[in-house]
Amino acid sequence: xxxxxxxxxxxxxxAETTSRNAMVFLCISILGTLAYANSLGNPFLYDDIRNLQDxxxxxxxxxxxxxFSREYFKAFTELSYRPVGTLLLFLNHSLFGKDPTGxxxxxxxxxxxxxxxxxxxxxxxxxDRLKSFIAALLFVSHPVHTEVIAVxxxxxxxxxxxxxxxxxxxxxxxxxxxxxxxxxxxxxxxxYFLALFSKETAVTLPLMLLALxxxxxxxxxxxxxxxxxxHAGYWLLTIFYMWLxxxxxxxxxxxxxxxxxxxxxxxxxxxxxxxxALYYPKLLIWxxxxxxxxxxxxxxxxxxxxxIALAGLLSAVVLYGLYRLRTKSPEIVxxxxxxxIALLPVLNIVPFLKRDLLAERYLYLxxxxxxLLLPMALEGLFSRFPKKAALMWISSTVLIICYLxxxxxxxxxxxxxxxxxxxxxxxxxxxARAHFILxxxxxxxxxxxxAIPPALKAIELDPGYSEAYNALAISHEKMGRFADxxxxxxxAIRLSPAFQAVSVRHNLAGLYIKRGMLDAALIETxxxxxxxxxxxxxNLDLCVISVRKGRAxxxxxxxxxxxxxxxxxxxxxxxxxxxxxxxLQGRFHDAVREYNEVLRRDPxxxxxxxxLAALLPQLRTSNPR
Length: 625
Description:
The chain is mainly α and 625 residues long.
């Protein structure tokens, strides 16, 4: 008899598995760091300027209650309720202040964790370590993910994907581990809850679980019958979230964006079919000439457009292929289904898109399915070769190196706003939004003369672009062109939806104040406050106007400054204006208190120091010992 090999104890197998998994996560971490090391020092750009750099609400934990109130949308400039990502912004600011390196490193860490979960998910589904490892490396290095690393505000996509995959993995473990099923099921539900409140795209998870069940159990009847009990908690959470999202916590300004592309459901269907069948697959398979904006994608209105015909043909081929593979290769069907299901919320079925018909960040969750599918495609391609594993390693290594190089190169485009938007315009000169954002970037640099051409180009490409008119007006104002500025502001107001017109009216009121046209400024300010009584800037404008109108309006100034200060207690200029009002009203003790508070917050505030020095002798005279 031949000698039997010694049996390994379970703890030895467990130790080997742990060691192997640690090496996998180490490789993922190294590759992720190599891919994004050159992005960590990039400045805040795009949405980060508004949501991080200029947002004082994330600087103080006193504002935390706003996250759980209807003030959330105004305070954190969001159009939908995403509190988990906002809480992370609070935490990031507490740790790193407004240093982009630290905050972006946190997003990179989350991205690496997501890549690790791609490995765990693939291993759980397919029991193939090589394919799982390749899938994870593809995910961590894919160039289409550069946007969510470059823009810290987009961490909501990373968070939603992290919790989404965790919920799927725990659900699957719960089905296999009978003794721990209730605990795993409960934790999976908690992960789904966090995914939903990271970003609404996670709402597809119950559908994804139905697709997952098809891998293990054949027969739709069996799946549907068992799913009623097994998926009940996920559907209940979904219903609760949908009620909260569209009824209880819906942003009022969202109604202005809720329209079908091209003004009709038919045009919306054609356009989004083209986006789904042509544009998103191209970004996944051939991620070159990436762009932060995609408003240059044309609206389709005819079924006979060449791209619509091609999109329809490709869709039919994919659907037919999925039907043929449903029993032979359910894993492939699941991977493709992951991509399609995860894209459902961004296909404008519930209208929310206005200018950008797609976005690279929208692919973060769907790309999991692509990265799971690609190793299986390589395996099928080399299945007839004797050295299949070696060929898979070589081809996947080449692809990963290409992705890595493209990611590093793309990170360099985000080194400053001028570089980013100039390159975007070079690739996509028909993008009105790229021209507009280049104009606003130049405005922030106080390069007013060079901001005018891109603003005009944005208006030429999109005559209804109210924000571009606003940027043009600011440029004219800063260059002393009063009549041109007023004309552009008024055109922006005519084109703006109500929730955007408030800021434009504030800008126009500010111009009138500078010119001493107080009555005209008051008209614009009153109009802005009619639209939004809690607008900080308009309340501050009312305070300034009332002070300049004289003694009869001091009480109005006092009330307006008080409202503005309640809306933004950190703003020293508002506090200074309130101190001035108190001084004019003869409330010297109140004025001294506010001047001292201004100097405590900003010791270099010379107007407050000068007014206080002039006020103290008056205070001693009015209160002799």
